[in-house]
Every structure is written in C-alpha cells, then in structure tokens.
Design goal:
The complex is a heterodimer of chains A (500) and B (167). Chain A has 500 residues and is mostly helical. Chain A is built from 23 helices and two strands. In chain A, strands 1-2 form a two-stranded antiparallel sheet. Chain B is built from six helices and no strands. Classes of the chains: A mainly alpha (500), B mainly alpha (167).
Chain lengths: 500, 167
Amino acid sequence: MDLSGLALGLETALQPDNILICLLGVTLGTLVGVLPGIGPTATVALLLPITFNFDPIASLIMLSGIYYGAQYGGSTTAILLNLPGESSSAVTALDGHQMARQGRAGPALAAAALGSFFAGTVATVVLALFAPPLARAALQFGPAEYCALVVLGLIASIALASGSAVKALAMVVLGLLLGTVGQDLYTGIPRFTFGVRELYGGLDFVSLAVGMFGLAEIIRNLEQRQTTSLVTREVRGLWLTREDGRSIVGPVLRGTTMGSLLGVLPGSGHVLAAFTSYSLEKRLSRTPEEFGRGAIQGVAAPESANNAAAQTSFIPLLTLGLPAHPVMALLVGAFIIQGITPGPNVIDDEPALFWGLIASMWVGNLLLVLLNLPLIGLWVRLLTVPYDVLFPAIIAFAAIGCYSLGLNQWDVFAIAAFGVLGYALIRWGCEPAPLLLGFVLGPLLEENLRRAMIISRGDPTVFVTRPISAFLLLLAVTALVVAALPAVRRKREVVFTEEG
Amino acid sequence: MSARLPTVGRRPYVPDLLAGGVFVLLGLAFAIGGARYDVGSALRMGPGYVPLLLGGVLAILGLVIVAQAFLGGDPHARELADRERRPVPWVPAALLVASVLFFGATVRGLGLAPSLFVTTFLAALAGHRTGVVRALVTAAGLTVLCLVVFVSLLQLRLPLLGPWLGG
C-alpha cells in the first residue's frame, strides 16, 4: 500500500482552508439534502456552480462534501418524515421511520450516522488501496478498450436501472446524441447548433442536470394537490443503548463489505447495495418479523452499505474517468471545467488532488458525524420550510447558477427545455439517470470510437480481437441479456418496488 | 393476473406510445441532421457518422417501444404505474417554464435584481395555495436572499440593474 500517497492526501485535506471548504460542502449538502423532495443528484447539480470559483482541489473537495452531505441529509428526512430523497435511502425509511414513530428517532439517526462513518472510513481505505493499481492498468488501455469500457458502463447502468430496459437503453442513446451537439472534435464543424454561436461548446451539462433532476422533479411534485403536512417530532436521546450497540456491529460490518463491493458497479450500485444488505440482514436475523417494524439493524445495514458504496463509486471515476452514477457524471463535468480530464492520469499528474480528495472524504465523514448528531434539532427545523417557498428558491438558484457559469442565456433556456423533456419522459416511464450518463460519456465514446477505427484502418473487428476489449464487450452483452430475461426483470421490479 | 394473449383490437398503452414516438422523432431528427454533415467512412468517420448511426439506433428502439405499446408488456407494471399517475399540473408547469425563460431572456437587459424578482414571482405563483400577495412576498424575500448569497457572499459579478433600466 502506498502510504506516502495517503500521507500527502491527509496533508492536503488537513490544511485549514481545505477543512473549511470541506465543512462548507458537507454543511451545504446536508442543508439542501435535508429539504424534502431534493435528492443528492439535484443537490449537487444545484450547488455545482458555486464551487467553480475555487481552485480545482478545493472545488472537488467541496463537491464531494456536498455529495455525502446530501446523502446524510437524505437519510435524516427518510427516518423522520418517511420522505427518502433518493431510492437508496428508501430502504432506510422502512425501519428508520418506524423507529421514529416509536419515539426512537434518536437511536435511528445515531445508528445511521455511526454506521455511515465506519463504512466511509473503511471504504476510503479500500479506495486508497485499489485505485492506484487500477489506474496503472487503465493507462495501458487503447481507444478500443476505452470504447468497450464506456459501452460496458452504459449497459451496466441499464441493467441496474429500474423499469423497462428498452426505455433505459433509448435514454442512454438519446443522451449520447445530445452529447454530440456542438463543434466536432476532429473537424471543428458545428453540429446541431442551428447557427447559435453559444451552442458551439455543446449543451451545458449543468442545464441538463438541473432541468431533468430539478425542474422536472418540481413539476412532478406539483402533481400533488396539497403539499404533505410535515409533522416533526422532538428528537430526544441520541444515545444507543448497549443492546443497540451490540446488535448493529454485524449489520454495519456486512453492510460496509456489501457497499464497498457493489459501489464500484456502474448504474445504481449504491441502491443495489442498500437493498441487498437490507435483505441479507433480514435473512440472517433471528427475528425477521421485526424488520419493517423498527429494527435498528434495518437502519444500520443499508446506511453503511449506502455510504460505503458512495465512497467506492469514486473508484471508476478516478481511475478510468467513468462516472458510476449521475452524481459522478456531474463530477466529471466539474473536473473538466477545472481543466482536468478525469481518468488514469489524474493520480500521477495531480497527486495532491487525487490523494487530497480521498483523504477529504474521510475528513468529510468525520465532520458529518460531528455536525449531524449534535445539530440534529436545527436540521429538523429545516424540514418545516413549506414547499411553496422552497421550489421558487430552487428555480432561482438553478437559473442564477447556470447563467453565472458562462453568462450565456441559452444555458438558462436549456433548463426549461430539459425540464419539459425530462418531465414528459419520466411520466412515460423513462428514468433520466441513464440519459445523463450517456450525455457525459458521449464525447468520450465518440472520440475513442473514431480513434480506434483510424488505428485499426477501419476494421471494426478490432473490438473483439483485442482481448481486454473483447472481454469488456462480452461482459456488456451478458449484462444486457441478463437484464432482458423476463425472470430477472420481474425480480428486479420486486427489488425496486417492494421492500427488499 | 390473467395471462391473456394480446388481441388485435386492444387499445395501445399511451405512455409507451408517446415515449416511443418521441424517441423515433428525435432519432430521425439526429439521423437526418447527421446525414447532412460529412458522414465519411468507418475508417475516417466524419462529423455526421456517429449521429447518423446513433439516431438510427434510437429510432429503432423507439419503434420497439411503440410495438410494445400495442403488444402488451407487463400488465401488472402498467396497472401499478397507472394507479400512481396523477393529472399533469399544466398551469404550474407553464408558470415554472415561463419563469425560467423570463430569467434567460431578461437577466442581461433588466439586470439581476428585477429579472430575479419577476422570475421568483412567476415561479411562486405555481404553488397550489399561493395567491398574488403571497407570491409577491415570497419573491421579494427570495430575491433578497439570492442577492445576498450570490452577490455579497459569492462575489458574482452580475450587474444588479441592466442597460434597459439605465443601469
């Protein structure tokens, strides 16, 4: 294990400025993540523009802080209000909210926080151990391998998405197509810009994310006539009893293992991790009937899995430049805006950034525990902000944020367009996440496809004759076939719609 | 659930029909647009190659989804989705879209403060229980909040009043 790297990372992350930035990130993330109806993806998209004023290291530390802050905030709302911000905290809501209704909100929050902290710490070490060799291996990749890798990533995100696989595939392809808007990389010819100069640089991914995950989501929430009345209870007694403490050790350990492994998977690895570890605990438990009625193991396990997966999902991003899920896709955009191409080179070219980011994740997790447990009362009060005030604020932040990035009014118009498109597609049963992944990976795929074909002199068999590429494509095909099998599909429905 | 075979006269499933239709249209648009650029060959792909290829794939996937709309699919999943479906909030949605478009169109001309005020006012009106007065109050509060956050704290250099207002 390369300890010098981790030492450099800690040195970077523990600089007072960076601790402050990290604190700011996790606070903002928790703040927005706690607000009902806004998941981590929307939170990161909304807060993305404000990080661009910082230097690259600070900006990425802040963004990742926002990400796990938002996840933490999401589990708080899941436990207290039964309003999960995203699907991975839906599992937490099952038992967490039951515990809250029995007056045990404090222990539920504490179990979630401590489990997450432990999982985050372990997963950070896993990341530090496995990222460098993987990055070194990835440096050997040629365009054909990269192409195959991107295809595998996209296909896997379909296989793990909920709902119709054909629709998810169509969303990926639409995302890839939207990614072709702008000047062609090789010839400089503007494509699909309709003479609008501002579109030469391509569609802005912040607009896309804010439109599809922010505006579309607001319209969806307004389908409900009355906003849910939010009843908050006093949170008292955060401490776990000795019995609680003993009963969560196993679930936390198993959840951490599960999350660290599954987090690397593209698509919804963290959702899968949360669901799988929940059902595992239920199966292992001597009292499975307790699950769903306020079992503390049912909170500790998925929260640990969730957080471990959030951490290890940075592995494909930092080593291959491949985002595992929408939040990571947003981070790719952030890297690029900072002038850094995410991929295997980051570790050698920007060691301070690479290791600093990893170490800051641990710092961030520690800060979150310190921030969340004592201040829980403050966060709970935030839950009472009425939605009628909240969503105009989101609109305002989204519009100013997007405009401020490039002072380009087309970026703002694009929010509206993507909002409408996203809402319509969500209504018709198409999830927006695969589209965002396709959009971010589109240029990468096209560039490597074209380069691979030039190198192979136009011979398309290059993808199956080179062993690594062939292996990756074989995996992709397997994933696609498995996802299309009716038996698996039904099981997947069950996993995603019912309760583990 | 009865596993009835799909009959010819059965009504197509509208969400699939619409989604598939949109994919076909967008796929064709990209394919036709792509074909107008230099397509090139597999060896030297021109700027039109990838859009043409992917546009075609998207159109085919759209057709598959349209076919599914007629041929069935999982009736249980559909029933579940239909039960969750609520009417489209047309007026709030239009107000929200208008508010975003207004911001894009006027932020340069009017300047940040007035543009933001109208934007948040329009957006606030989309709330189900929000009347004009309440929307005005919300808009005023949010405008001040955003100006404090973005201009004072984040030092965003956007003029508060634009050239249309002599700023």
